[in-house]
Specification:
The structure is a single chain. By secondary structure, the chain is mainly β. It has a domain of about 80 residues: Jelly Rolls. It is about 5% helix and about 35% strand. The protein contains 1 helix and 10 strands, in the order βββαβββββββ. A hairpin with a 4-residue loop joins β6 and β7.
């Protein structure tokens, strides 16, 4: 387990830096996130949450490891494995369960207010966003 590292305008951590065992890992306060809610959840096998919904906050679920089942208020059920992503509107009732044999680890991002659009810019002297092979 390492430490949370911070610099001017950035912070970096590992999931293990944010807690141990099952339950919520509070990413937002640990990293100083100001524009959205974000938590990691470690859910043991055979565990489920109760239904919940939000007044304003749309959520996106990203499954890092394990198997997460999401049940929606309309009765639909979706199973997400590693790399699975789900968007849930604020007012939509939802609950999660882990039917897999191991911990399910997933990250939930929540926000309200809309997409701000593509607002990325290049610093002076940079030609543009590009991907290139690095040696090493």
């Amino acid at each position: 387990m390492g430490d949370i590292e911070q610099g001017e305008g950035w912070a970096v951590a590992h999931l293990d830096d944010l807690g141990e065992g099952p339950g919520f890992r509070k990413i937002r306060p640990a990293l100083g996130v100001e524009e959205m809610g974000v938590n990691a959840i470690v859910m043991p096998a055979g565990v489920e949450s109760g239904f919940h919904f939000h007044d304003r906050q749309e959520e996106v679920y990203f499954v890092h490891s394990g198997v997460l089942e999401i049940e929606f208020g309309d009765g639909a059920v979706q199973e997400l494995g590693p790399g699975g992503i789900a968007r849930v509107a604020a007012a939509t009732h939802r609950k999660t369960r882990n039917r897999g044999p191991a911990d399910a680890v997933y990250v939930v991002f929540g926000a309200e207010g809309g997409y701000v659009g593509r607002d990325g810019r290049n610093p002076e002297g940079e030609a543009g966003v590009r991907v290139r092979q690095i040696d090493g």
